From TrEMBL:
This is GPI mannosyltransferase 2. Mannosyltransferase involved in glycosylphosphatidylinositol-anchor biosynthesis. One of its GO terms (cellular component) is mannosyltransferase complex. Its main location: endoplasmic reticulum. It is found in: Endoplasmic reticulum membrane.
């Protein structure tokens, strides 16, 4: 009786902890949206051009401006559409009209268009069509953030098997320095949802779902195609395992082919969008009328647009006048550097330089640790939890029965990736080798943000990388003095970001 009571209490605690993440994510979005409304009401925007809405070039687009029931609310929503949000709303309303608009990928505008034409369509005569488009964007991104926070929590538990670490990291994600972009009409929330969801399903054995989510992330932002690296990392280690441990070259070849095909599927939406741009901007024109990128052997408009319209390029931003922007991005870049340096020092030879193959040879195959299902199918959450299940099984003979009962997935079970009653060992150090591919990904995008991109976007560009929050969670737990600086940094950027960004002042 006491055992059943204890198990029930553990289950209740698990549900409560998961619900806390949802509540924290919801509170963080309410906070950010409240700050946007507050700053917009207290200050005048630096640039008021965001509310301008010229007619679409296509005659069949709905840009009518009939009398509205609540025009002030509509005007307020339209005025809050600033910076890149103007492009996304314009694309949702009018399609891709100009060459520079092709720098913004279509998934978010598609979702905005669908929502504005369906659920929110009755609001058009009340606040206006463009305001409905803006409202749709806000709803989509804030809901996406709530789901992304849940996926982050579930992923963190799978990685560390430690609820406290997962909870701390998830709280840091909920109140991250780039929070203003996760509640605005930007791609941060949708991209994080698709990327984190894809990684979670990959680690859980859902390779098909992971591939689909990764592909959609590449249809949301250009760097979404980098998620194919997780597939490649998996395939390399499984092929290594097939050759070294199973002595099967054929299995290794099949594994590599499978990984290559799945990676190609992830690239497919990105390639299709490039082909769509080429068809619209280059086909049917004579040579003198073509844009320079149209005549390249491999037409690639995204790189050209970034260079031509935004001056993006290797070391092009290294100018004295850009020093304030480097200072603005310095906290997130320093955190990324410390995260990478920590792991390089920790795994310098055995894992980092060998990409985990030496660890695979000496101990357990890293592919089995990272991707327990291989290509054989989806595993249960208890299997994903790794070594904790065997210990719990010995101590609790009813665990197998509970696992069978858990097949009927409910909201509470979806929020809790570990089975009810599971005793999760608390790790004393942040040293899981499972983080290797995440850190490699972080290193690549950090280098791109510093050397190639406009450096001020680093705060939001890197904000979806899990190792930043996992390492910050480690610092908060084991380096008490760092906790104050981490939370102060997040709080300051939330306040400053909501003030500057919402009033059309430059911020990351």
């Amino acid at each position: 009786m006491s055992t059943d009571t204890s198990q029930t209490q553990v289950s209740i605690n698990e549900i409560n902890e998961s619900n806390k993440i949802l509540r924290a994510a919801l509170v963080s979005r309410i906070l950010v949206l409240s700050l946007i409304i507050l700053w917009r009401s207290l200050l005048s925007p630096y640039d008021t051009s965001a509310i301008l809405n010229p007619d679409c070039l296509s005659s069949d687009s709905d840009t009518s401006s009939e009398s509205l029931i609540w025009p002030k609310i509509g005007s307020a929503i339209e005025g809050s559409i600033v910076w890149d949000g103007v492009y996304f709303i314009r694309i949702a309303q009018c399609g891709y009209e100009y060459e520079q608009t092709y720098a913004f990928f279509p998934l978010l505008p598609i979702f905005i268009y669908i929502l504005s034409r369906t659920i929110f369509a009755p609001l058009v005569p009340i606040i206006g069509y463009r305001a409905v488009l803006g409202l749709s964007g806000y709803v989509i991104n804030n809901i996406a953030f709530l789901l992304a926070a849940v996926y982050f929590y579930r992923l963190s538990i799978i990685i560390f098997k430690d609820r406290k670490t997962a909870f701390r990291a998830s709280m840091l994600f909920c109140f991250n320095p780039a929070s203003i972009f996760y509640s605005s009409i930007y791609t941060e929330s949708l991209y994080s949802l698709l990327s984190l969801g894809g990684i979670y399903h990959l680690l859980s054995g859902g390779n098909t779902i992971a591939m689909l989510l990764f592909a959609l992330s590449g249809f949301t932002r250009s760097n979404g195609v980098l998620n194919a690296g997780y597939i490649c990392f998996q395939a390399m280690h499984q092929a290594y395992d097939a050759i070294v441990r199973k002595n099967s070259v054929g299995l290794a070849a099949m594994t590599l082919i499978d990984g290559a095909l799945r990676s190609l599927c992830i690239f497919a939406p990105f390639i299709a969008f490039q082909a769509y741009g080429y068809h619209n901007l280059c086909r049917g024109l004579i040579s003198d009328e073509m844009r320079p990128w149209c005549e390249e052997s491999v037409p690639f408009f995204y790189g050209f647009i970034q260079r031509h319209y935004w001056g993006v390029g290797f070391l092009k931003y290294f100018q004295l006048k850009q020093l304030p922007n480097f200072l603005l991005a310095s906290p997130i870049l320093c955190l990324a550097l410390c995260t990478i340096a920590y792991h390089v020092k920790l795994w310098l030879d055995e894992i980092v330089f060998s990409l985990g193959f030496r660890a695979s040879h000496n101990e357990k195959n890293l592919a089995d640790i990272l991707y327990p299902s291989g290509i054989s199918g989806r595993l249960s959450d208890a299997q994903v939890s790794g070594e904790i299940s065997s210990e719990v099984s010995r101590e609790n003979p009813n665990l197998r029965q509970r696992k069978k009962m858990s097949k009927g997935r409910t909201l509470s079970s979806w929020l809790n990736p570990l089975p009810s009653g599971t005793v999760v060992p608390v790790k004393s150090d942040y040293s899981s080798i499972i983080v290797v591919p995440f850190v490699l990904h972080l290193a690549f995008i950090s280098a791109a943000a510093f050397f190639v991109m406009h450096v001020q976007v680093a705060t939001r560009f890197l904000s979806s990388s899990p190792p930043l929050y996992w390492f910050s969670s480690y610092l908060v737990a084991h380096r008490g003095r760092c906790a104050y600086f981490i939370w102060a940094y997040s709080g300051a950027y939330i306040l400053i970001g909501s003030l500057l960004f919402s009033n059309f002042y430059p911020f990351t």
